[in-house]
Amino acid sequence: MRKALSADATHRHVSALCTAGPIHYDLQEVIDSIREGERWRTLADGHSADIHIAGACPHDGCTLSPYIATDPGSTESNNLENLHRC
Ligand SMILES: [Zn+2]
């Protein structure tokens, strides 16, 4: 997972995801892929969770949209915001 600084520099939001291989996918590519019916899952510490399209970045006042998120019930290590950097 990679993050990029928001336009107003108050926080960082997810900007790209990485797969097992050396390739990373920009946020928009992941969203396009989900819309085409691909399944994306996080995998961390042996747990996995579905990634889905979310309305917008959860940070207060941020309008980056669409965004992606995992299910609220995900374990902390599996939460999209807490994935290992790559
Ligand atoms: Zn944001």
Structure characterization notes:
By secondary structure, this protein is mainly beta. The protein has one domain. Helices cover 10% and strands 35% of the residues. It contains 1 helix and 6 strands. The chain has one helix at residues 27-35; strands at residues 2-5, 12-18, 24-26, 41-44, 47-54, 67-70. The strands form 2 sheets. The chain has a 3-stranded antiparallel beta sheet with strand order 1-2-3. Strand 4 and strand 5 (47-54) form a beta hairpin. The protein is globular and about 35 Å long. The structure holds zinc ion (ZN). The site of zinc ion (ZN) has 7 residues, from loops.
Question: What structural keywords apply?
Answer:
single chain, 3-stranded antiparallel sheet, 86 residues, mainly beta, 35% strand, binds zinc ion
Number of domains: 1
> What's the average pLDDT?
88
| Small-molecule binders | zinc ion
Rg on CA atoms, Å: 12 Å
Strand order of the largest sheet: 1-2-3
**Distance linking N and C termini:** 5 Å
- The helix content, as a percent range, equals 10-25%
H-E string: EEEHEEE
User: Total number of β-strand segments?
Assistant: 6
Shape: globular
Give a concise summary:
The chain is built from one helix and six strands, in the order βββαβββ. With 86 residues, the chain is mainly beta. It has one domain (2-82).
Task: Summarize the helices and strands and which ones pair or pack.
Elements: E1 2-5, E2 12-18, E3 24-26, H1 27-35, E4 41-44, E5 47-54, E6 67-70
Antiparallel strand pairs: 1-2, 2-3, 4-5, 5-6
